[in-house]
Design goal:
mainly alpha, 193 residues
């Protein structure tokens, strides 16, 4: 069907060229068929490909929403295989890794994709900061310390999270000294500064 429509279109261009060049006063006609420099049939396949990618990406986000991390990771990887520039799939993959508890892989992925998708590192780091803030608020200093071991303090995007934990420990030590209670820093083995 597609070949027929292309053929009909090319024939109509050729016929148009004939009728445009015909001069009512002339006895000869000039015939110059239009020469197609390139015929791109892949437009239909690209549309199908894009629809396939969108469908798989929708499935990936559905798995993400259902907290089915392994299935989400698999689907996001499939999208990235078909469309390596998909920022949504890159972000979804990083956050699926992160939420599955594979913090090291989430960090490495953000670092590896930082040239083409710098926002992934930012999303992961902002999530780390929010999680550390929550842990500190809940007094879960040991959990926060263990959690932050996956994210280097030397990386500027994670400095805030490390500083937040260190400051909370300092405050805890100070409050513990005033009240005579065992400071949280001693309970988690954080060195006093």
């Amino acid at each position: 069907m597609l070949k027929q429509s292309i053929l009909i279109t090319v024939l109509s261009f050729s016929a148009g060229a004939v009728s445009l060049k015909a001069d009512s006063q002339s006895t000869t006609r000039e015939f110059r068929p239009l020469m197609a420099k390139k015929v791109a049939v892949e437009l239909a396949s690209r549309a199908t490909h894009a629809a396939d990618v969108d469908s798989v990406q929708s499935q990936a986000w559905a798995h993400f929403d259902a907290r089915d991390w392994d299935a989400a990771i698999d689907k996001f990887l499939t999208v990235l295989e078909k469309d390596p520039a998909s920022k949504a799939a890159g972000e979804g993959l990083a956050m699926s890794l992160y939420r599955s508890g594979d913090y090291g892989s989430a960090y490495r992925l953000g670092s590896e994709l930082s040239e083409v998708m710098p926002e992934i590192r930012t999303v992961v780091s902002e999530t780390v900061i929010a999680d550390v803030r929550y842990m500190v608020k809940e007094g879960e200093f040991e959990t926060a310390k263990e959690f932050l071991s996956h994210f280097p303090a030397t990386d500027s995007l994670y400095t805030k999270a490390h500083t937040m934990l260190a400051d909370a420990n300092k405050i805890s030590v100070s409050l513990g000294a005033e009240t005579g209670a065992k400071p949280a820093a001693e309970a988690v083995g954080v060195a006093k500064n």
